[in-house]
Amino acid sequence: MLVLEGLLGAILIAGLFAPLLAPYGEAEIVGGPFEPWSATHWLGTDQLGRDFFSRLLFGLRNSLGLAIAATALSFLIGVNLGLLAASGGRLVDQVLSRLVDALMALPALIFALVMLAIVGTGSFQLVAIIGLLDSTRVFRLTRALALRETALDYVEAARLRGEHLPWIMWREILPNIRIPLAAEAGMRFSFVFLTIATLAFLGLGLQPPAADLGSLVRENAQLITYGDITPLIPAALIAAIALIVNLLIDALEQDRDVLALKEEGPGS
């Protein structure tokens, strides 16, 4: 657990302080194309002569930033609509649920490709489209958790006190479902991070000269035919981040289950 937290912390620090840690600028041409690893360029240079190590740090920063922003947007939309569907009455629930079902019926990656081809690629477009698509999963989970809570006495008591719907949603129901939503946030982040990397590999991520991990793999993939493992480094970093986050989520859920069993006591 501590090892995983340390690795994730190191990755986040490397991304956050990329402008300070990178020896060269994100788009600065500092050598010839595809120079080998050396003391000057630790991971060589890319197809234009830019320092690959610097590009890797900036790509990590950009990919993490996009994934965090898209995950936050998906929860902002999904949690609020899920709470509204669960506590706003049958008509509201039916309308929102059918809209979400229609959106979930579309293949997410294909829909994202089509929308990005229409509206263009960029950080705002990526965050908006992926956040909207992923909010459907958050909506379904929030609605299911909130429906269970709305049947309990404390919600009915709040209604009898005359509390408004926003109060019931955010002050009564949300605090009682925050733990499973927090676990879901980690899973959604992993999914969003991989989706952004996939779109970038397909050429629909951040546009040059901005770097992200998926585009670093695509731009330097031809090196693999010459036995150079440089393009595999950002690919391995993508896989490592997704794996570490998932393992941390599993560990946190196990700790939560153990704590729940201890609170129940042996006589329960």
Polypeptide structure, described:
The protein is elongated and about 75 Å long. Helix 10 packs antiparallel against helix 11 (232-264). The chain starts with a helix and ends with a helix. The protein has one domain: MetI-like fold. It contains eleven helices and no strands. The chain has 268 residues and is mainly alpha-helical. It has helices at residues 2-16, 18-21, 52-87, 90-104, 108-119, 123-150, 153-160, 165-173, 178-201, 213-219, 232-264.
CATH superfamily: MetI-like
Please give the radius of gyration in angstroms: 22 Å
Q: How is the main sheet built?
A: none
Q: How much helical structure, as a percent, in the residues? A: over 70%
Beta-strand content bin? under 5%
- CATH C-level: Mainly Alpha
How much is the average pLDDT? 89
Features:
268 residues; single chain; mainly alpha; MetI-like fold
Helix-strand blueprint:
Blueprint (H helix, E strand, L loop, with lengths): L1 H15 L1 H4 L30 H36 L2 H15 L3 H12 L3 H28 L2 H8 L4 H9 L4 H24 L11 H7 L12 H33 L4
Helix pairs in contact: 1-3, 1-11, 3-4, 3-6, 3-8, 3-9, 3-10, 4-6, 5-6, 6-9, 7-8, 9-10, 9-11, 10-11
Summarize the structure.
This protein has 268 residues and is mostly helical. The chain is 71% helix and 0% strand. It has a single domain (62-264), classed as MetI-like (MetI-like fold, Orthogonal Bundle), CATH 1.10.3720.10.
